[in-house]
Design brief:
The complex is a heterodimer.
Chain A lengths: L2 H33 L6 H28 L7 H30 L6 H30 L1 H6 L2 H24 L6 H35 L2
Chain B lengths: L1 H17 L7 H5 L5 H19 L8 H6 L6 H9 L3 H28 L6 H16 L5 H40 L6 H39 L5 H6 L2 H19 L1 H10 L5 H22 L5 H14 L8 H28 L1 H5 L1
Helix pairs in contact in B: 1-6, 1-9, 1-11, 3-9, 3-11, 6-7, 6-9, 6-15, 7-15, 8-13, 8-14, 9-11, 9-13, 13-14
Classes of the chains: A mainly alpha, B mainly alpha.
Chain lengths: ~220, ~350
């Protein structure tokens, strides 16, 4: 296979990895929605959890496929490292979704319904953030010179993370004002923290892309 | 005796390989475009090719200086020794003197390589020859001064002109490429491909020119001294192409065994440069060496050219991106390497004066 085709294959597999993570995030959203509802039974939650795990597994496999696809391409070692770091970090988003899901199932945890709106808002913003990230990664392959000149899209990713931070702080405040024991409050705040970690991971990926661009920019 | 001379010459070549020759791919290795192993292999091959094809053309460049500084016997001295039946003694003394010059220069370059300073091996040889001459040659003789003063003046001026020229060429190249060419690289793979090809072409070209220019300077002295020797080895060493190729091989071994220290100084310590800047620096270095070599009429240092080129590339992003502290230390090493080699040769000359005048 010619190097150009191999390079295109890397692009395709990275986008496949991003799609796999995105699918995992969608399943995770379904899980959180269900776990915030009192009518959802344990079996349904277990089924939704399995779906998240399956999607996470697909993301893992795609990551390994992506790493293998770099062999024989014309990418420099530093670019290969950067691309692997970006794809691995994307995979961490799926890992985090799986972690929160499994933790909730094992602990038979339910989110209070009054917090559901805020939690889903976090997930919606995180999705938007991930879409921007997907766009920026695609630009690395197709419009690299534009990215070198202007990477405002990465600032948008960071701005969305700040929105998540604001909701997170408001949630902590509400949680510790709620009428429940401290252990339950702590448990709930841990879930919120883990949920908001996803936005942090996406922000870290944006930073990695910016570093990659800065080190190549003259 | 010829083997002692050959050994000293090879030590000189090895030292040159550990220092000057590392420049061809220094920035490529430091910016991780090309692995150290690939880089040294390519340099080694191209240095030998350069020495084989073009090395012999430059082999007599240091002969005049060596003769006027009493390292190599003049034609009259050779005839006189033959008349007096002392040619064996003359042969022995010539070989020992040449070996001393090489060893002084090679030790200086090796120490500089160990200290990670890119310096000029050619100038260390010149320094050692002049240091020897300060003890033996009659510096009140206008003929001696006529050979030495322009030579000293020329290589002192290259400490400024060579890096300055490389810096200007590099600055212009980096500026033009960044302004008009970088913007056209639409994909990451295209960007990487241009960088990889650029480094390979520039590095191969630079390695070839190092083989062509430096191998002769390593071996010129033992080539000259070999004419005063007898035996199979001495006869072989009077073949200019073979001698230059042996010099090239010695440089290649130096590159393969101990060049990483200087390579990393050149590539990463002097200024912050990007991957694209890196290969433009090598092109600027090679162009400067060719232009200055022709203009000045003496072999100029690739180490000095590459340092100037890195500074020039760094300056396109402002004064702050250049580490002037490192640059200052390197500049001191440029001045001190021929000085130290000359001083060593001078001290050895004083200690052995009784023997050589007997």
């Amino acid at each position: 296979m010619f190097k150009k085709e191999r390079n295109n294959e890397v692009h395709a597999v990275i986008m496949e990895e991003i799609t796999a993570v995105e699918n995992c995030m969608r399943s995770f959203e379904n899980f959180i929605r269900a776990a915030s509802s009192r009518v959802t039974d344990d079996d349904t939650l277990k089924m939704l959890c399995d779906d998240v795990c399956k999607k996470e597994d697909v993301a893992d496999k795609t990551l390994r496929k992506m790493i293998d696809s770099l062999v024989g391409t014309s990418f420099l070692p530093s670019s290969r490292e950067d691309l692997i770091a970006i794809a691995s970090s994307c995979d961490k988003v799926a890992n985090k979704c799986e972690y929160v899901t499994l933790m909730a199932v094992h602990q038979h945890f339910r989110f209070p319904e009054e917090l559901a709106e805020s939690l889903l808002k976090i997930i919606t913003i995180t999705h938007k953030q991930f879409d921007k990230l997907e766009e920026s990664i695609s630009m690395l392959f197709a419009k690299f010179n534009n990215m070198l000149k202007d990477h405002a899209i990465l600032d948008e990713v960071r701005a969305l993370e700040t929105e998540v931070d604001v909701i997170e702080q408001a949630l902590y405040e509400r949680i510790f004002q709620m009428d429940m024991d401290l252990a339950h409050q702590m448990q709930l705040s841990n879930y919120v923290e883990a949920l908001c970690d996803i936005a942090d991971i996406i922000e870290d990926i944006a930073d990695k892309i910016q570093i990659m661009l800065v080190t190549r920019k003259n | 005796m010829i083997y002692l001379l050959l050994f000293a010459g090879l030590f000189m070549g090895w030292s040159l390989g550990t220092n000057d020759a590392a420049n061809a791919f220094g920035t490529a290795v430091a910016t991780r475009v090309i692995s150290y192993r690939t880089a040294v292999t390519l340099i080694a091959i191209m240095v030998v090719v350069g020495a084989f094809i073009g090395g012999a053309n430059n082999i007599d460049k240091v002969a005049e200086l060596s003769t006027s500084n009493k390292v190599i016997a003049s034609t009259e001295e050779v005839y006189l020794a033959i008349e007096e039946g002392e040619e064996d003694k003359l042969r022995l003394k010539t070989a020992i003197k040449a070996a001393i010059i090489f060893t002084c220069a090679a030790l200086t370059v090796f120490v500089m390589s160990y200290l990670k300073f890119p310096v000029s091996a050619n100038q260390s040889i010149t320094g050692a020859i002049i240091g020897w001459g300060l003890c033996y040659a009659d510096y009140s003789d206008p003929a001696v001064l006529a050979v030495n003063l322009p030579q000293i003046g020329k290589f002192a001026s290259t400490w400024v002109l060579n890096p300055l020229g490389a810096g200007i060429i590099s600055f212009v190249l980096v500026f033009v490429v960044n302004k008009f060419i970088s913007a056209k690289l639409t994909t990451l793979s295209g960007y990487d491909k241009i960088i990889r090809i650029g480094y390979l072409v520039a590095g191969i070209f630079a390695s070839y020119s190092i083989g062509q220019n430096s191998s002769a300077n390593v071996t010129a002295l033992y080539f000259d001294a070999a004419f005063a020797q007898t035996g199979v080895a001495a006869n072989l060493l009077t073949d200019a192409r073979l001698t230059a190729t042996i010099g090239g091989i010695a440089i290649a071994v130096g590159v393969l065994t101990f060049s990483k220290r200087v390579m990393m100084t050149v590539g990463s310590s002097i200024a912050e440069i990007t991957q694209i800047d890196g290969f433009l620096v090598i092109i600027a270095m090679a162009l400067t060496v060719v232009i200055m070599g022709k203009w000045m009429g003496i072999p100029v240092s690739t180490s000095q050219a590459v340092v100037g080129a890195v500074v020039g590339a760094g300056l396109t992003r402002g004064v702050k991106s250049v580490h002037f502290g490192v640059f200052k230390n390197i500049a001191i090493a440029w001045v001190s390497s021929p000085t130290v080699a000359g001083l060593m040769a001078y001290l050895v000359a004083i200690c052995t004066k009784n023997y050589f005048l007997s």
